[in-house]
Amino acid sequence: MGRHRSDPVGVARLALVGLAVLLLLAVVVIGAKGLLSTFGSGEPAAGGSSTPSAPSSAGPSAEPSAGPATPGAPDVPTVRVVCQADRCPVFVRVPGGDVLIDRDLTRGEQAAYFQPELDVVLDDAGTVEVFENGTARSPGSPGERQAFSVKRAPGQ
Fold first, then answer.
1. Residue 45 falls within a domain, yes or no?
2. How far is CA 69 from CA 77, 88, 124, in A?
3. CA-CA distance, 75 to 62, in Å (whole number)?
4. Best CA proximity match to 113, nearest among 149, 66, 151, 43
5. Which of 13, 29, 76, 153 could form a disulfide with 134 if both were Cys (CB 3.0 to 4.6 A apart)?
6. Which residues are bridge partners to 146 per DSSP?
7. Residue ranges of the chain whose pLDDT lies below 50
8. Measuring CA to CA, which residue among 46, 44, 111 is closest to residue 79?
9. 101: in domain
């Protein structure tokens, strides 16, 4: 007495449930990766307009920028960040709202935004050139972390 035999139907059901769980986890992981890559792309959130930045003397721009808020407005961005090193960590967001960029720029790449107010964080302020409403901001020291807000200049 006492020997138990495995039920082949029960084992098959258990294997099928395990396979379904693995498939569900794979779909969740792939969806999460896609969602995270969308947030990290530097694209404006849905509903925002996006136009490529004009190339600067620092080199070509691979980063899109949010265009002027009103048609016919001057093309001077509220903030423009130009990478001067191989790697420039940049974070820009609308205060209390959308993250516009949270990634490393590469040498010559720039990010320009036209929103009325922006929060900017530079992990290494010595690696970037920053323009606030078209005016160059004092350069940071190598390795210095800077966090500041920029408001759009009146009439721009």
1. no
2. 10, 27, 29
3. 18
4. 66
5. 76
6. 122
7. 40-64, 69
8. 111
9. yes
Q: Full-prediction pTM beyond 0.70?
A: no
- What's the pLDDT at 63? 43
96-141 pLDDT per residue, tens: 999 999 999 999 999 999 999 999 999 999 999 999 999 999 989 9
What is the span of the domain harbouring residue 58? Answer: 51-151
Q: Is residue 90 part of a domain?
A: yes
Residue 15 lies in a domain: no
SS3 track for the chain: CCCCCCCHHHHHHHHHHHHHHHHHHHHHHHHHHHHHHHHCCCCCCCCCCCEECCCECCECCCCEECCCCCCCCCCCCCEEEEECCCCEEEEEECCCCCEEEEEEECCCCEEEECCCEEEEEECCHHHEEEEECCEECCCCCCCCCEEEEEECCCCC
Using CA atoms, how far residue 89 sits from 19, 86, 124, in Å, is 41, 10, 7
Residues 91/93/95/97 CA torsion (nearest 10 deg): -130
Taking alpha carbons only, the member of 113, 26, 110 closest to residue 69 is: 113
Q: Please name which of 16, 131, 141 lies closest in space to residue 75, comparing C-alpha atoms.
A: 131
